[in-house]
Amino acid sequence: MTGKVEVLATGPFATVQDLGRPGFAAVGVGRSGAADRSSVRLANRLVGNPETHAALEVTLGGLRLRVSEAALVAVTGAEVDVRAGRRTAAPNGPVALRAGEELVLGTATRGLRCYVAIRGGFDVRPVLGARATDTMGGLGPPPLAPGTTLPVGDVVTGQPVVDLAPLARLSEEPILRITPGPRLDWFTRTALSTLVTSGYAVTADLDRVGVRLDGPALTRSRSGELPPEAAVPGALQVPPSGVPILFLADHPVTGGYPVPAVVREPDLDVAAQLRPGQRVRFTLSHEG
Question: Which one in 94, 177, 217, 264 has a CA-CA gap of 20 to 30 Å to 145?
Answer without folding.
Answer: 94
